[in-house]
Amino acid sequence: MQKQNTRVKILNTAFELIYKNGFNATSIDDIIKHTAFTKGAFYHHFKTKEDLGIALISEIIKPGMEKALILPLSTTKDPIASIYYSIKDLLLNDELFDIKYGCPAINLIEEMSPTNKKFYLQLSQIIISWENAIEQSIEKAKQNKIIPSSIISKEVSCLVISGYAGIRNLGKIKGYECYNTYLGVLDKYLKSLTINQ
Amino acid sequence: MQKQNTRVKILNTAFELIYKNGFNATSIDDIIKHTAFTKGAFYHHFKTKEDLGIALISEIIKPGMEKALILPLSTTKDPIASIYYSIKDLLLNDELFDIKYGCPAINLIEEMSPTNKKFYLQLSQIIISWENAIEQSIEKAKQNKIIPSSIISKEVSCLVISGYAGIRNLGKIKGYECYNTYLGVLDKYLKSLTINQ
DNA sequence: TGCATTACATACTAGTTAGTATGATGCAAA
DNA sequence: TTTGCATCATACTAACTAGTATGTAATGCA
Question: Which ipTM was obtained for this model?
Fold first, then answer.
């Protein structure tokens, strides 16, 4: 019980610091300084710093992305609208995330995936899952005659995901205004795919 | 003459290492180890590591982005096509960039702009310049009756730039295939704006 | 030619880094 | 009660970090 508590506390503290400053720029001393624990506790629960990073992804970032972006798509009657609103909710209403620091998953892809294979594999899974969820939504919309069958679902998912990744990057330098602009054009794009626009 | 040479050599070496590994993960010792010079040379030409980073942006990254993405837009007769082809050229033909490591400018925005004001200001300028160039292209296309005046140029630039930033991030985990998919949907989107599709 | 400045090289420092070694405490089962 | 394991704390190390101090060779200029 207390074991889980300590581990989770360290993990949450690490998440916040790494989210704001990056993985390499956040030291283990930094992390434990922000908790009531010491280095002994850290290395009791995590084998290495890399181990902490992997736990961070699989236990915090991945569930968070799934809850915000994937789950809404699998339970909806209006797949096209759900793509839009899941992203809108995440960008405008998620209190956990600060526009200045972007998206935790995208940040880690940027920083770690080119140089660390374990990070690369974990982060790939998140993106591929989201990609699949969007593509299934598009196929569902085709079946429901909401959008024409000529639409290539892979292209839609590519534009949606790259747009999300990009706007979370640009938000760091342009602020909230660009989120609203992006949501406006995303909405128009998705509606332009539908048969009765 | 030789002074410029040493500085430029250090700068180019630093660019390559920082492009691949990030700014924080690249040490000054790393950089000079990849040149024929020593720490004395480094600190003769650069006041601090931050100073090197700023020089990197203004002397290598900014001119590179302007040449690849901004200049083609200001000298063309077909502004919409130029937006597409400038990005296509950069993604598929630029030998300097490796898909695995993304875009140097986007990488630095991701890593440094939230925590370093000088980086933030320099990198903002690049994005704003590109944004303005795209918006002017859209306005030009409106004047030439290529696209309807109802199109909001700010929205187009937002989708194009966020798409570029995002796909250079996703390229790190998905490889070249996603560049082609992205270029396909970018082409379709831009053509969907035109009057005679 | 003499001199000052530039352009480096070498050797250092103080602080930080991930990770380890060892010890203390509590708790659960025997 | 005692044994053993889990849960931490403290103190350490070796390697690395940005930056400095100081010296020296080359270069431009009077």
Answer: 0.93
| B21 with A115: Cβ contact below 8 A | yes
Distance from chain centroid for Cα B1: 29
Which residue matches tokens 């970018």? B186
Across the interface, of B101, B113, B164, the residue whose CB is closest to A166 is B164
Helix (H, G, I), strand (E, B) or coil at A25: coil
- Pair B105, B111: CB distance under 8 Å: no
CB-strand contact B187/D, under 7 Å: no
Q: In angstroms, how far is CA B171 from the centroid of its own chain?
A: 14
Q: Which superfamily does A48-193 belong to?
A: Tetracycline Repressor, domain 2 (1.10.357.10)
Domain residue limits, chain B: 1-46, 48-193
Nearest Cα residue in chain B from A103 = B110
Say whether pTM exceeds 0.90.
yes
- Mind listing the pLDDT tens digit for each residue in A142-155? 999 999 999 999 99
| CATH code of the domain occupying B1-46 | 1.10.10
A111 at interface of B, judged by CB pairs closer than 8 A: yes
